[in-house]
Write a structure and sequence with these properties.
It is built from 25 helices and two strands. By secondary structure, the chain is an all-alpha fold. The protein has a two-stranded antiparallel sheet with strand order 1-2. A hairpin with a 3-residue loop joins β1 and β2. It is globular. Keywords: Nucleus, Transcription, Transcription regulation.
Length: 543
């Protein structure tokens, strides 16, 4: 008897049913009920090839044929009658082993993932070549959008947020004058998934609904590093993260910002001294967004200042750009303090407060003065859009200062060294609500200067600070202007009520409920001690 050929498949014992890949990996081959493909092969999107002489895809022939067919007969059947859903039948005879060696390679579990010319339909989109996948992503997103005229009409009618977004993000391009109509014309006919994704996000943002488009773009575009690690991909990412923030989903925005930070690091963006203004704007937009969401949610940030000193000290940008950037740097140091175990250091807080004062001194005194209402808006030489950005920059400054002194708000008597922090926290809350009143003031067309549900929540926390300082502290530590404080809180409550009634905003409804509880307006529980849990803020025990 001659020795068996090296290519002959060893026969398995009777009753054994195991595919070649599971045997190679020395794992158990598990078949779901009624499924001819084992669990592990399905998870790898590979072909499940049985070790024996039978075709695993033909279960009926296994039960009807009591004996196995000759190997050479099976090989000829495999060459002549292979279907698209079934792998060819292999044998180990010398007559067919060399002939089928290429077919063996093509249907190997690993190689089969790379050969897509046999049947494209059997592979998921993430295994397609980049060009085919891009076409698939574009067609999928386009199928969820209406026609061009409808999109243009919606963006033109409800696109008042666009100018604010472009200037607030410090990104998108070196041509800040691009209108939303020009953006629509450019992206609608584009074959770049990032452009189509940005158009879908802008459409949903303008309608203030269809938020499933956010998830679709997040899954198909932002989650693919091939698209994200480009200038257009980062533009789409920034728009998506800002839209998540505006619609009151800071957790999703935080996740998107982290994806953007990873993309900039893989691109090597701003890692040295050679970078363009566009790259600097894109990087800073992600840097600012990550710091804002991280401090709001009480989570760590992702971009370390020590790794980007050349960017943080770069020259050639406007004064407002550096004002916000320096505030974001302080924001990161406050996050470091909050993430450290133990009580916060008052000395460190005073050091950061001095740095904030230094930042404030870079702006002239008249820059900080704002009108009581939009009816008295008479700032000469200042456009309405510029005034909005001025308010947002001041808002960010006082918000950072409020979080800096927030740990020292309660139980600070006049003789306590923490009394300074307490008063600074209260004053910052007042300044925030004054600017919020202007940002939310509606004009004749019914639109306001700035609309963002996450900003609404940030202003709600400022109102909570004023209520705590008024009703839930000792008389010695109360604010000297209680009436003014309560008027600011009442104005905030009215603005939140309008948002709740007109837009059915659940965030505004929950914020108003907490404000009413802390204002002691609830007669049933007015005399009871009650713990009020405020997300991303803490617990307030009303006594």
């Amino acid at each position: 008897i001659s020795n068996p050929l090296p290519h002959r498949v060893r026969k398995m014992r009777k009753g054994t049913r195991s595919c070649t890949e599971c045997r190679r990996r020395k794992t158990r081959c598990v078949y779901p009920p009624g499924d001819p493909v084992c669990v592990l092969c399905k998870s790898r999107d590979g072909r499940c090839i049985e070790q024996g002489y039978e075709d695993v895809g033909i279960s009926e022939s296994k039960s009807s044929v009591p004996r196995k067919q000759p190997a050479n007969e099976k090989a000829s059947q495999g060459r002549n009658g292979t279907s698209a859903d079934q792998p060819p039948k292999f044998s180990g005879d010398a007559e067919t082993s060399d002939v089928l060696v290429s077919e063996r390679a093509n249907y190997a579990p690993i190689v089969s993932l790379l050969l897509l010319d046999r049947d494209q339909r059997m592979y998921p989109p993430f295994l397609l070549p980049l060009e085919d996948k891009s076409a698939y992503v574009c067609s999928t997103i386009r199928s969820m959008l209406p026609g061009y005229d409808t999109i243009m009409s919606v963006l033109t009618k409800n696109g008042s947020w666009w100018d604010s977004f472009r200037s607030k993000a410090y990104a998108i391009s070196e041509a800040p004058s691009q209108t939303i109509e020009a953006f629509c014309k450019r992206t609608y006919t584009s074959s770049n998934p990032a452009d189509i994704g940005a158009l879908a996000v802008a459409f949903a943002r303008s309608l203030n609904k269809h938020r499933y488009l956010y998830t679709l773009v997040d899954d198909l575009v932002i989650s693919d590093i091939n698209y994200t690690a480009t200038i257009e991909g980062l533009e789409c990412l920034i728009l998506l993260a800002k839209s998540y923030t505006d619609c009151g989903q800071p957790k999703r925005a935080w996740l998107v910002w982290r994806k953007g930070a990873s993309a900039t690091q893989l691109m090597g963006l701003c890692c040295g001294k050679n970078y363009s203004r566009t790259e600097l704007r894109l990087w800073c937009a992600i840097y600012h967004g990550d710091r804002f969401c991280s401090m709001l949610l009480g989570l760590p940030y992702v971009l370390n200042d020590n790794h980007y000193q050349s960017v943080l000290t770069a020259a050639g940008m406007g004064q407002g750009f550096y004002f916000v950037l320096r505030c974001a740097i302080i924001c990161g140091r406050i996050i470091d303090r909050n993430m450290t175990a133990g009580k916060p250091s008052f000395a460190k807080a005073m050091e950061l407060d001095e740095e904030l004062s230094s930042i404030a001194s870079t702006q002239p005194e008249d820059w900080w003065s704002v009108p009581e209402s939009m009816d008295h808006f008479q700032l000469q030489g200042l456009e309405l859009s510029d005034f909005r950005e001025l308010l947002l920059q001041q808002f960010y400054f006082f918000w950072v200062k409020l979080y800096l002194h927030l740990p020292f708000l309660v139980e600070s008597t006049a003789s306590s060294p923490h009394y300074f922090s307490r008063m600074a926290c209260i004053e910052s809350a007042k300044q925030i609500l004054r600017r919020y009143r202007l940002l939310r003031c509606k004009n004749k067309s019914g639109s306001c200067l700035f609309e963002c549900k996450t900003t609404d929540f940030a202003c709600f926390t400022a109102a909570v600070v004023l209520l705590i300082s008024t009703f839930h502290c000792s008389a010695v530590g109360r604010s000297s202007s209680v009436d003014e404080d309560l008027e600011l809180v009442a104005t905030t409550d009215r603005l939140l009520l309008g948002e709740e009634v007109q837009n059915e905003c659940k965030v505004a409804a929950q914020c108003r409920k907490v404000l009413q509880t802390l204002s002691l307006n609830d007669p049933i529980t007015a005399d009871e001690s009650r713990e009020v849990i405020i997300p991303f803020f803490g617990a307030v025990i009303r006594k």
